[in-house]
Amino acid sequence: MDKDLKEGMKNMVKATEMKITESVLRWKYKKEGKEIPGESELQHRSHVISQKANEILTRRGKSIMKEFKEVYRKEGKDEGGS
Predict the structure, then answer these.
(1) Which of these, 61, 60, 21, 71, lies nearest to 42 by C-alpha position?
(2) How confident is the model over 47-72, as pLDDT tens digits?
(3) Which among 13, 29, 63, 73 is placed 20 to 30 Å from 21, CA to CA?
(4) Entry pTM
(5) Best-predicted range by mean pLDDT among 1-10, 25-34, 73-82?
(6) Distance CA 78, CA 16 (A)
(7) DSSP string, 37-58
(8) What is the distance between the terminal CA atoms of the chain, rounded to a whole angstrom?
(9) Dist CA 68 CA 65 (whole Å)
């Protein structure tokens, strides 16, 4: 994949992620009857939340891949030993 295209797609996904997070935060504040913070504060909070979510997904994704690899190795040993 072209490097510029890949980078453009990453930026588009990040921007979409931020807009969705902002939307969810607005909804949450309205639902709880709280005052919605200013645009810059809302963007900052959205950024922090999306970063934390990405970190969690990255960590869990690595452990999921580790589990898949272990299962694959075990199946390979079972088939080879039979």
Answers:
(1) 21
(2) 999 899 888 888 888 788 788 788 87
(3) 63
(4) 0.66
(5) 25-34
(6) 45
(7) PPHHHHHHHHHHHHHHHHHHHH
(8) 42
(9) 5
